[in-house]
Design a protein that fits this description.
Length: 376
């Protein structure tokens, strides 16, 4: 009965975080993280510019073209890698909101803002006493629109527009830089590489600063003008005016931007055949751990096969086999069915996130994970 022994209840607390406090706290933490990132991006960018303008050709003069070209690899990797490390550092040391139950830091508004739950222990931690805000109309799913129901199928929401800004900025910025530096195919390779180092510098500074200058409400206007967003259907949150993610609104009944209650969800009590949240979480954590192990083992494996070191290859194979076996065991303990019992959709790897964040099937929204809500 290993399933029973690994079963853990979802923690239950009375002292919840006020939703506004949570938002302010998280916004403050991410603002200071962004500030650090911008300062670092400026420093890295300036370093690239200086090196490209004054030192690069002098340093490279001692090497032949092949080795010079090889040095471009660290040039391309160093800036993004440093910014990545800074982001990791911010996650660890920043003053992020902590879950009152498990004490772990929460780094993103979602899923907590909509689900009101901690992403680490699934406890209900947000206090939100707002009543239903009427008026919001859920857009159709792809399948519903294929059944030729009248209405709007949503592909654009506020979060999507935020991401699109980066795509809007990148090509014009790169083209402008190439023109400004006069790169052309007759150019000498040494000159071109020095120019690329400088272009990297400006691009790193620009990519951090420029996208946030494009206004989301302006983009919404353009989308409405292009009829990508319908005028008549009310897909905006009545509380904050943003376009919430339709899938999150469907699964939680709440706005993904401000957490306001937009839809009344069916109340489904826990049943014994529903999944245990902690078991699903352990399976998912195991999966990401094996992905990291595979990424670390792969270069060692290549090295081992180049050197024909069989003992090393056997050891790596054994380690990898153990991780696969461990994943298999955790999956069995989590008892995730192949298909959703309500709509018979395949519960592939991509559905696990939805199960953990919202406890529901990503297609039919039936509750599949126990949340312990009825016990309080
Ligand atoms: Zn927690
Ligand atoms: Zn809202
Ligand atoms: Zn389903």
């Amino acid at each position: 009965m290993s399933n029973r022994s690994s079963y853990r209840k979802i923690p239950h607390i009375t002292q919840k975080i006020n939703r506004q406090d949570f938002r302010d706290w998280l916004n403050q933490a991410s603002a200071s993280a962004r500030m650090l990132t911008s300062i670092l991006a400026w420093l890295i960018g300036l370093a690239y510019l200086l090196v490209g303008a004054f030192f690069w050709r002098e340093w490279m003069a001692q090497y032949d073209l092949k080795i010079q070209a090889f040095w471009m690899l660290p040039v391309f990797a160093a800036g993004p890698a440093l910014l990545g490390f800074a982001a990791l550092f911010n996650r660890i040391v920043g003053n992020w909101p902590r879950c009152p139950t498990c004490g772990k830091k929460i780094h993103a508004l979602l899923p907590t803002l909509a689900s009101k739950r901690c992403p680490h222990c699934h406890a209900l931690i947000l206090e939100d006493t707002r009543e239903l805000s009427p008026g919001y109309l859920l857009p159709l799913t792809m399948e519903e629109s294929l059944e030729k129901k009248p209405g709007y199928t949503l592909s654009v929401d506020t979060e999507f527009l935020r991401k699109v800004r980066i795509i809007l900025v990148t090509p014009p910025l790169m083209i402008a830089l190439f023109l400004a530096f006069g790169l052309n195919h007759d150019m000498e390779l040494e000159l071109m590489m020095a120019a690329i180092v400088q272009i990297m510098g400006i691009a790193i500074i620009g990519m951090v600063g420029l996208p946030s200058l494009i206004s989301i409400s302006w983009m919404t206007h353009v989308c409405r003008f292009l009829q990508l967003i319908p005028k008549e259907q009310f897909i905006y949150c009545p509380e904050c005016g943003c376009i919430p993610s339709a899938s999150i609104a469907r699964r939680t009944g709440c706005c993904s931007e401000c957490g306001a209650k937009l839809l009344e969800l069916a109340n489904e009590p826990d049943t014994p055949d529903m999944l245990d949240w902690h078991a699903v979480k352990r399976y998912e954590t195991g999966k990401s751990r094996s992905a990291i192990i595979a990424a670390v083992l792969y270069p060692v494996f290549l090295l081992g096969s180049l050197l024909k070191c069989w003992r090393l290859l056997w050891t790596l194979g054994a380690i990898y086999a153990i991780t696969i076996w461990q994943d298999f065991r955790l999956k069995k303990l989590a008892r995730i069915p192949k298909k959703c019992p309500h709509c018979s959709r395949q519960l592939a790897q991509s559905a696990i996130r939805s199960l953990l964040n919202y406890g529901r099937c990503p297609r039919c929204n039936h509750k599949l994970v126990r949340d312990g809500d009825a016990e309080r």
